[in-house]
Design a protein that fits this description.
The complex is a heterodimer of chains A (270) and B (660). With 270 residues, chain A is of the alpha/beta class. Chain A has two domains: 2-220, Rossmann fold, CATH 3.40.50.620; 236-270. Chain A has helices at residues 36-52, 67-76, 94-111, 131-139, 195-202, 211-214, 251-264, and strands at 2-6, 9-11, 17-18, 25-26, 32-34, 55-61, 80-84, 114-120, 142-154, 159-166, 169-176, 179-183, 207-209. In chain A, the strands form three sheets. A nine-stranded mixed sheet of chain A has the order 11-10-9-12-8-1-6-7-13, with helices on both faces. Chain A has a two-stranded antiparallel sheet with strand order 2-5. In chain A, strand 9 (142-154) and strand 10 form a beta hairpin. Chain B contains 26 helices and eight strands. Chain B has helices at residues 3-30, 42-54, 65-90, 101-130, 147-172, 181-190, 195-219, 227-236, 267-275, 281-285, 287-290, 297-316, 336-340, 347-351, 358-373, 379-390, 426-430, 432-447, 464-468, 472-488, 499-506, 521-530, 561-571, 605-613, 627-639, 651-659, and strands at residues 420-422, 452-453, 493-496, 517-520, 545-547, 576-577, 621-624, 647-650. The termini of chain B are far apart. Classes of the chains: A alpha/beta (270), B mainly alpha (660). The A-B interface holds A 12, 14-15, 17, 31, 33, 189-196, 198-200 and B 251-253, 255, 257, 370-374, 376, 378, 381, 384-385, 389-390, 395-399, 473.
Amino acid sequence: MLVISCIKQVPDTTQVKIDPVTNTLIRDGIPFIINPYDSHALEESLRLKDRYNLRTVALSMGPPNTVATLRKACALGVDEAILLSDRCFGGADTLATSKVLSAAIERLDRQEQVGIVFCGKQTIDGDTAQVGPGIASRLGFSQLTLVDRIESIDFLHKTIRVRRKLEGRHEIVEAPLPVMITVVRELNRPRYPTVPMRIESRDTEIKVWDNSVLELDVETVGLKGSPTWVSKIFSPERDQGEIIGDGIGDPIGTANLLIDRLLGKDLLAV
Amino acid sequence: MSLHQAVFTAIFAVSVLSFMFSCYQRLQLVAIGVPENRFDNPFGRLLGMFNYAFAQKRVLARPYGFNHFMLFWAFMLLLVANGEFLLEGLLPGVNLALLPQPLYHTLQLLFDLVSVAALVSVLVALARRLLFPPEYLGNDYTRPASGEALLILLMIATLMAAFFLLNGAHIALGQSGTWRPVSSAIAALIDGLPPAVLEMVAVASWWLHALVLLLFMNFLPRSKHMHILTAIPNCYFKNLAKPNVQPRETFEKGERYGVSSVEQYSWKDLFDSLTCTECGRCQDLCPAHNTGKPLNPRRIVHDIKVNLLKNGPALKDGKTGLTSLIGVPAEGTIGEDALWSCTTCGACTSVCPVLIEQMPKIVKMRRHLVQEKSQFPEELLNLFENMEQRGNPWGIAPSERTKWSSQLGDRAFKPGESEYLFFVGCAGAFDSRNKHVSVALATILDAAGVSWGMLGKEEQCCGDSVRRLGNEYVFDKMARENVALFKEKGITKIVTHCPHCFSTLKNDYRQYGLEIEVLHHSQLIAQLVESGRLKPARLPKLGNVIFHDSCYLGRHNDTYQAPRAVLKSVLGKAPGEFGRNRENGFCCGAGGGRMWMEEQSGTRINLERVKEAMNGKLPDTLCVSCPYCMTMMEDGLKDLGAADVIRVRDIAEVMAEGIS
């Protein structure tokens, strides 16, 4: 059974600034890192490899320099790293991205049955959280999002039981394999590459699959296959409501302030 | 050949062979270590050997050391007497009496007096171990009055007693001259005994002396008293470079990193372990041990020795050792917690009388844990990634590096124009408290008319913490990049207010071919004051000032005077001192990468140091010369609720106030 982790190379957002004029990210000279959530996805695939001796593949769609990020995945211990890169994949939105990733997963599935696909819950540059679910729907896999613990895997009956971290509660869910899981940071603590593995990974071949391998209709991938259009990026203005007081530092005072305000607006009666 | 002579010759031959075999066995174990060149500069080495082994420089640094000094020299002189004794046993009639009479008599007198000195030393040592042992003599695996220590002292005392009895009997029998005053006094005591009894006393004491001497010799290589044989060569093979900079590692396929088994240590590391005398001085000074951490530098060396003795024979045959060097703590196995407790302050290495290098052995084991196992305290993961990805421990964007100097205008280093590179350091650039020190130093440099510039966002961490933590791979990358940048900019002089940057750029980067002038700000400021370019004009209102030594400035780089001179030039008098100062200074707790780790066991090192500051006359200002010390001392004072009573100032801030 194959375990796949989908990882994305993103600009190091701690170093990214937004251009005040164009409202876009200034990416010049900003180093790239593995999307932090994806590093937890990668780690979980490696833990399954360590525990059950499963084969792991790291997949990434991106420009050729994404090889650096995939090499890091190799240093961490994945068995194979594949870069999906082609000019025609460029400018993709989540729909087109999930199309390319799904095609690659299907291709891998023909060689060895894919059991689990791990994705980060979202990326720190796009923050849409749509690619993982997109893959699940396209491939007809079970879809388990926001997972913070793998409870158990039943290889005999081909099911997996996980815990999902939702707002203020947890949810234990069981689903049949194959499954697409998006992960949150609480799932695990990513490992640090050992030096021998780093050195080994210098020579590891990173396979590059372009569209001559995936043979997708160019109209359905990249910019052409992306119905999403970004018209503007901005921080939303607060047009109604206000934040009063300091709820963490002085909760009682703030509550009193709120009561006074509501009384003043005649929304509350004593 | 008499029966006596024949029996002795046989016993002697067996003893010598057995002694040589023991020594050979031990040295064979040392030889499984990896090569390390400790044979260069023979003159410097001889000088070191003279200072530390023969003049006992470090032994004498403590009052009790005089007793050891006396015993050592008594041993050295009695080597001749014992040589004569053994020779005469083998070849009767061959003795020092063959020398010219005045010389022979002088030697007889000397041996007699020296034997008294040895006996007195032994009695003092026994009393110390039995009646008033210092705390550091014992620990979890040994105690001051250990059987081994008492046995050896008893053996020496027996040798001296037998020596006096033998000579006393000879004098009483009229077979020997009276050039030995103490033996003569013994002779006077037993003079009344019949000659036959005196003969018996003489024969019995001769055999007692001979047998104990040969037993003693055979006991040495099999006990901690091996130091009697190895201490002198260990001093000869000392590390000549002052700060103990770890060797570089090469990052190629098939290499191993750090040490996880004794044979990965260098032969000198292993020789060190056989040289340890268990005097406990390193344990006494170690900040980790003093605050209840699982680390004891003495124990580290002891465990390496035990492990070597257990695993050595198998390792020598190319097999693997059965007792792991790092693992669940036991005799011969060192716990990981102990390794992570080290602040690399260097107190152990700078106090060891026989120049054992404890701390570097710890770093070598850290290298294994980090680089081969990726096993380290959780907090370090962020540090390592921040260092590698963003070139600073906090992971702040490099573009923020110049924020502290925004008021100063463009202060970029201009090749050919700027004299000094001001290497601000990560704390000086990002830490809100330490930014004030950067401003103070900039003010001072400007006031003295020094031309300087900075690297701005091109500056990255010197890599001190990652190197001490054993992440040599990341350090190597940072060092190579920094050195290339310095060379590209044509930098020839660097000043920094962080002793960690200072020591790393000055000493560690030498391994990367950087040999330029690197100054700690205390040194540059002291020079500027001395040359008259800086004239403190105003007495800062600092009240009583006490100065805390930074380990990487003081112990690692022998710079004790410069920061004190700076303070004296402003304050008009020398600053107050901690009880433990200079070589004996006590770490703030942040070195060796401990700055980035939680301090979970024992008490806090910074609290111990701050309490020490408050021990005597309460100071108003605690002066530091290091950004880590600044943070640790301020935090310690805050924890004690004394932040309003005592403030912490860097020496640059004091000077800046004095010239404004």
